[in-house]
Amino acid sequence: MASKAGRKTVNILIWGLLALLIVGLAGFGTVNFGGTSTAVATVDGREISGTDYFRALNGRISAAEQQLQRQITVPEAEQMGLTVAVQGELMGQAALNNEADRLGLSAGDERVAARIVADPNFQGISGNFDRESYEFVLDRNGIKASDYEDDVRLDAARALVQDAVAAGTPAPAFQTAALIDYFGQRRDVRWLALGPNDLSEPLPQPTEAMLQAHYDANPDAYTQPETREITYAVITPDMILDQIELDETAVQALYDERISQFQQPERRLVERLVFSSTDAADAALARIEAGEITFPELVAERGLTLEDVDLGERTEDSLGAAGADVFALEEPGIVGPVESDLGPVLYRMNGILSAQEVSFDEARGDLEEELRLAAARREIDQIRDDLDDRLAAGATIEDLANETDMEIGDIDWYPGVERGIASYTAFTETAAALEEGDFPELVQLADGGLYAARLDDVVPPTLRPLDEIREEVIAGWRNAEIRDRLMEQARTVQAQMGVGSALEDQGYAVETAKDVTRTGYLDGTPAEMLTTIFDLGAPGDTALLDEGNEVFLVTLDAINPPAEEDEQIALFRDAISEEINRSLANDVLTLYARELTDRSERSLNSAGIASVHSQIR
Fold first, then answer.
1. Which residues pair with 507 in a beta bridge?
2. Sequence-separated (6 or more) residues with CB below 8 Å from residue 48
3. Tens of pLDDT along 139-169?
4. Which residue from 52, 312, 406, 531 has the least number of CB within 10 angstroms?
5. Where are the alpha helices (DSSP H) in 145-289?
6. What element of type H or E holds 25?
7. Options 2.40.10, 3.40.50, 3.10.450, 3.10.50; which CATH number does 186-220+470-560 get?
8. pLDDT tens-digit profile of 5-36?
9. What's the pTM?
10. Comparing C-alpha atoms, which of 382, 395, 385, 384 is closest to residue 440?
């Protein structure tokens, strides 16, 4: 019975994968998308089918939708230039195919077979090519194997032309070196930070004239923005909680319903990597134990991500035969190979989650509050129609407060006010949009509450009187005075350094950092510190910057080249070279395809293109 159940599980997984493959290959090759098979374009007699255009355009639109996080219509795609771009790319491919024919290039059977076998769309659950999957998916999509293999042969021949064109575009050494030097350059620096405690003299008490001068010089800081005076009526679940009566059995029932949250057995954070054979799993484990490869590297080597193999939190029972071994680990480690329905498996345990048990009495308070809030939301929802009817009949905000459980309030609102009802996003949106004379409308709050609001007046930006904000002005004057005095002290130190004095001789604590990079971090310094350091031109240069009530004086001691022995620099160099190579190759290939296309006799079938567009959602 166990064997039959195992085979059933595997079959379900395989058929599920095949279903996904069918969806993934929908629209591929010769399958049509609703009867349109007319060529949408020709390049020197080579046709571009409606199916190919549909597939390419649909893919481009889907990618744009993902980026913009919204749906895109075909007219929008046309305005964005997506349709023209796809047409140009397909015509370029057709021109390259024609060039491959002209050069007598063709892919042999071995190359075609290698491409098909390597295609992840046709890999079975073991990660290897599965002929049954291949034939099944093609058949379900109405694609003949011979037609599909002809397409693969054509793609492979075109790739020969593309590779030949792109092969002569290595990354220029000077460009790679310049980028490495820029990102990998290291600098030695010293700096001092001056704060309020470093003032050479204590601040005096501000005179009336000082405060007035500061107030007059900084009107923006003391001007209240345009203010909207709003009256509102509101009811929220919290406001009527004391009216809600609870049934004790409901609290117990909710606890019982969520017992899995309150009583959780010991669990492990587990990842699972399946292998095609026990020998392959043993070999992989041996490489890990020998330090030749890590588990994440092994996962990547299989073309997977850690998300693909993550099982999340698992109990011992849920891991089946591997449960005992995984739970025997007292710290993160690897277990296996273990036989499973999927094949031999290596498990990696990443964390231990202790058993948890919260009694009913411990959970009662939270459960009662949740039930009361839910009941209050239902009560509010039941009176919504009545409130709407009252407003439609001409009731005012004051009427709602007098005749219902809603409470009246008022607020002087402007962007940035977040107190009281203004802490709700829905209210701030309403407050910003209200116009004088608008009839109050009922709006729902995120917690299930309801409110209606009326704009009473709009007060233009107003400079608040000094007498009303004296303490605020005093604080502003103190901050500005501290900053000005510290900056003056720092300039004095900077001037002394300019005539040969050392930073350490100025009587302040000096910090030192060596081999600072652009992506580094200097604790206790402002975010602009690194930018300032790398803006300095030569050793000996200095710069000042301020952050709040602190002023920093930094001096550059040395500019050091990238650390060639640093593994990160080596990885960065390889990545930069690869990216430049790819970019140059793409540019050259694009120009080459464009030149071939321009030399070709081309035609577009407007009716065929329109037919394709009509069948895209």
1. none
2. 39, 40, 41, 42, 90, 91, 94
3. 776 778 887 888 888 888 787 777 777 676 6
4. 312
5. 145-166, 173-184, 208-217, 248-257, 259-262, 278-289
6. none
7. 3.10.50
8. 443 333 443 334 444 444 444 434 333 433 34
9. 0.50
10. 395
